[in-house]
Amino acid sequence: EAGVTQSPTHLIKTRGQQATLRCSPISGHTSVYWYQQALGLGLQFLLWYDEGEERNRGNFPPRFSGRQFPNYSSELNVNALELEDSALYLCASSPPQAEETQYFGPGTRLLVL
Amino acid sequence: DQQVKQNSPSLSVQEGRISILNCDYTNSMFDYFLWYKKYPAEGPTFLISISSIKDKNEDGRFTVFLNKSAKHLSLHIVPSQPGDSAVYFCAASSLHAGNNRKLIWGLGTSLAVNP
Q1: Among A39, A67, A99, B101, which is most exposed with the fewest C-beta within 10 angstroms?
Q2: Which residue segment(s) compose the domain that A41 sits in?
């Protein structure tokens, strides 16, 4: 069974640009979660999508947004990039009614110059 | 305010000995707890979990203990192996409005198992 996949693996942008990160969940999983892990920090919850709807949002500014498509894949968009947005962005998925167990992708490392 | 706290950012253990990773929480509504392991450049992987109705769950070399009165859980790894060297995250879950669950994460403890 294929795991959670994320693309790209690495992304380099400059300040003010926009970044789009993509995630494909495990087949059969309906929930997708986005996390940010900045250097030296733990996992910071960003967004949770389930059945195409945003269920919950972490303490991040509105320039962090996303969506979930009918096939349950998801995009994370970060507008007006700032240097401190440089981090590893992790996507996780979970099966229906089992949000407590999340399966993670390898992450996208975003570097903002 | 950190609801899930892993107060030791790092831990070093000799191969073959026991590794004990600790986690404290503040929210009494948490009813499910999980441990994840993360290697560099990889996403976290699920390791072991425990429901609040239990006080111990064992899976091979890994055992999680839950002390609800102290709001404390710990992960024991016996015997520790060099391949166990990773960052270990504690996470806690509770039900929210609309019957949805949410995971709250600790900051992680970096375990180094020395040969």
Answers
A1: A39
A2: 5-101
